Amino acid sequence: MSNAQTWNPLEMHGGGKVTGLIFHPTDPNIIFNRTDVAGLNKSTDGGNSWKSFSLNIPKDNPHNFTARNFAIDANNPNTMYYCSGNAPAINGSSIFKTTDGGTTWNRITNPSNFSGNGAYRWSDETLIIHPSQSSKLYVGGQTCFENGNWTASSGFHKSTDGGTSWTAVHAATFEKAWITSVKFHPQNPDLIFISAAIVEENNIATSQKGLWRYNTATGVLDQIHNENVVAFDFDANPNKIILSREEGINVYDLTTEQLSPITKPFNASYDYYLRAHPSQSGRWYFGAYHGFNNNGLVETLDGGANYNQVKYTGGSNFQRLIFPDYADTNFKPGHGNSMAGIYFHPLNPATAFMDGVFKTEDAATSICSQVNPLDFQNNAAWDWTWVAEGIHIMVTLRACPHPIDVEKFVINVADVGEYFTQNGGSDMDYKGLLLHYSASTRYAKSNPDIGYTVGKKFDNTGQLRKTTNGGASWFSPMTTNFFTGSIVLQDLQILDTNPNHVVVGVHQNGLPNQIYRSLNGGSTWEAWDQGITQAGIFKQWESFNRLIKDGNDVFYTFKNDKMYYRSWSDASWTLIPHPAGNTTINQMIVDPSNPGILYMTISNNLIYKWDNGTWSTIPSPTNISDMIAASPNGTLVVIEKLWVSGQRTQKLFVKKPNMNWEPLSFEGFGGVMKSMIFIDDHRLIGISNGQGANMIEISSNNACPKSNNFYAAGIDNQSAKIYWEHASGSDFTLEYKGEHEANWTIIPNPTSPYNIIGLEPCTAYTMRIKVECGNETSEYQNSSFSTTVLSTYCPTDPQSVWRYWIDKVLIGSDNYFSGWNGGYYDWSCEQSTSIIAGEVMSITLTPGFLDDVNNVVWYAWIDLNDDGNWDQSERVISSSPNSTVQQFDIPIDINTSPGNKKMRISMHRYHANTDLGACDVYSNGETEDFVIQVISADCKLVTNTNDSGSGSLREAIDCAENGATISFHPDLAGSTIGITSQVIVINKDLTIDAELSDNITIYGESVGRVFLANVFKNISIKGLYIISGTNNEGGAIWNRGNLTLENVFFYKNPGQDLDATQILNDGTLVVKENVQIKGE
């Protein structure tokens, strides 16, 4: 039965916000966190790793996973309470209770509303349990806004029966309040303190702000502060209360009933969080809304007489952030990027956490070093380790399959960009912040190197980016953004037969049309919604496709009760007749294998099938059919539509070809499902409302479990750590090989992580793993990685988390499109630029930014004297602040020694009096390293038979300018040039002409292949004898570009098979006279 199967999360980390940490009352290893969109997570190893604690929460309301409160009964820790909701919206709040440690959760009576993803969600809990009377609960809510008014839907309530019933307390005060925190006095549980802050909707404010003290014994409520209180905490001497306000910090003395004047250390706004140390009086911590990146983490050790500030955005402080290996393939946040507070472990206060989640074990002493306390980026005394493994907080929007390779797909995510996989989701690789909101990414079926991605930037303008190299780099094909008047580009399709024919669906805002198409690869656009009468088809945040296309390039769209279709040559869209009147359509999809067939659902127990103009019905096992998915082999999956009142929860059903419907398990799936799509006949991806994406394999012929989360990390120039999730009791076999290697290196019975050493720098490796279980062997899981450049240059650690990056570098005619890279990128393994000594090198620099404040400063250094360092005397660019594209001309002295020179370019947001060195650590920007080949005029002449080095063929190809001709010294006639290190990659337009020298042979004696002619390059080879390398496919030449051969003779390598080929042609091959392929 399918219900025995389990959904597995695709391992994507780093999005969303952790809004609170709650500690087990007696077990120091158990910690819980609540999140704004992904429910709860639990750690059993002291906060080092996490698993979802919300899998058993009912899936009858998407807001069940916007967590606002979590409380543990100190007397019976298996009893817990969880509040969720979407205030100020109505009908979205619940209180759940478990008495078995989270195995089952039951919805209990809810007297209020909660805001798990709204204002002040980072404040402390508003549901508390009496420390000695477990049945006595108190809860404060957040009010709702309806019909232009704040409703009496919040309040402060009391239960004496464990949440079965509730009584309002001082309803007139709190029924329309936005309560931010509720706490018992640490030494007197008869006293409860309640804080509230003003929230506005449509410029209408809530009714209450301040801090109140409620005496449960007498029923007396008195207000002790009448301004906004975002958060408050008790000093270790509990007669003092510290209050956080936007205006600053107050301290209330319960003994004297006096409030201190406002203090505002470092002139920061402390409207975000505060925390008092649990045992050291006067030791408090504060942080503002934008966290470390603006105001730092502020500490006082003496009750506010003096303050320290530490920032982890640059300098040596940044070096104290520790990112485990799994961060290499994930969105890696800056310290404080997702934080909502600092938490000291109550059972071990030397351990502290920042939401996000970062952990330190240095909290026994001050966070600030006294060596240089006022140098805010070089004064930290605490290390922090990112401990977010297993936390899947992602507002995921779509899964977009690749048109050719079923192992490749993209997951589009709001806020952090997109993730990409090449191995069916086993390894999810973070591709960077191409767009702040990534809605859809698609590659062209006729040329998968060409792709487009759409979404928006932080300024709420629709955006489109294009790639011509399979996603390695992206750029805007438009001179100016045509879609500035839109909120977001929400949907995207590419014509199967032409990669330059693109259609987008637009959330309009100011644009006059809602569908546009391009005939030239995105450069220009024209309206394409003629004939559509339905308005507002495309809206941001939707996770299913409203612009769809079948295998015959017929486009479809739908909204409300309207469905339309249009071919590329049609003058307008045609309305499809509705089979059931004017009922709203829940979803419509195309059959992936049969053009002209659609499936559609409305709110009944049927699935409607459109077959080239004729409607029929398929009985559905649901009461109300909602989303549907169809596999290439005809498997259907349908989901029961949830009902937000709790009367109906989501359920899944599957119908395989020629079989009946049967249940499909939801086990392991976090959150509510928003959409689903097959990537092949058996694998189904489900998009969660806030917990990323999950995959289930509906059927398999192999009972062996596949390894999961198979990836390489911790990669340097000669080693890599390989990770995978173990199945208990299974034996694994790990295999890998480099791009120039014919045979696999086999590692029997490895354990994760396995450290591979002795690798070659700048080399692409493929790897695969299988598992033995009983008498069966699983299918291989495949993945890949590339080693880095071997470098002795200093590292750099800038942070671009605040949306500043190097978008493009143009050196001469060579384009380097990198986009956002998390702070650093090294191009040395991928490409280089040549310049002849004595000439001028032109550099054009394009900044990327998402903030409104966008002045940036550029620096560049070239190691011209080859000493392995960038001296300040070698700084060749130092710009003034500017937000536009900058162009610089750099003369290269004619006496500069030939060879590779390392160049570093740094860009950072402008701050006054900043003067960077090449090795400085900084925030708000990005650094990229390049290789500049300085060549002399005669370097294109081959003078010896060496594999590499001065005078070699390899060196001549490397140093030649674009369009040059390589020639051979007459003394080389009859000589053999042995290629022994690696394939010669030709990455420029080039002619290799040996016709004036007699009988020159190129021998791939110990490599797999002699030449690789790269994509888009025009290459001509004349008058050579070529003995292949050992590869059986294309041992002489792999042509990916435009190759012309004339008077070239090919010979097999003794190590090749009898049926080996000497030329592997994936490009354009022109054969002129006298080209022969011979035996050995």
UniProtKB/TrEMBL annotation:
<protein>
    <recommendedName>
        <fullName>GEVED domain-containing protein</fullName>
    </recommendedName>
</protein>
<dbReference type="GO" id="GO:0010411">
    <property type="term" value="P:xyloglucan metabolic process"/>
</dbReference>
<dbReference type="InterPro" id="IPR011050">
    <property type="entry name" value="Pectin_lyase_fold/virulence"/>
</dbReference>
<dbReference type="InterPro" id="IPR045474">
    <property type="entry name" value="GEVED"/>
</dbReference>
<dbReference type="InterPro" id="IPR015943">
    <property type="entry name" value="WD40/YVTN_repeat-like_dom_sf"/>
</dbReference>
<dbReference type="InterPro" id="IPR013783">
    <property type="entry name" value="Ig-like_fold"/>
</dbReference>
<dbReference type="InterPro" id="IPR003961">
    <property type="entry name" value="FN3_dom"/>
</dbReference>
<dbReference type="InterPro" id="IPR036278">
    <property type="entry name" value="Sialidase_sf"/>
</dbReference>
<dbReference type="InterPro" id="IPR052025">
    <property type="entry name" value="Xyloglucanase_GH74"/>
</dbReference>
<feature type="domain" description="GEVED">
    <location>
        <begin position="858"/>
        <end position="933"/>
    </location>
</feature>
<dbReference type="Pfam" id="PF20009">
    <property type="entry name" value="GEVED"/>
</dbReference>
<dbReference type="InterPro" id="IPR036116">
    <property type="entry name" value="FN3_sf"/>
</dbReference>
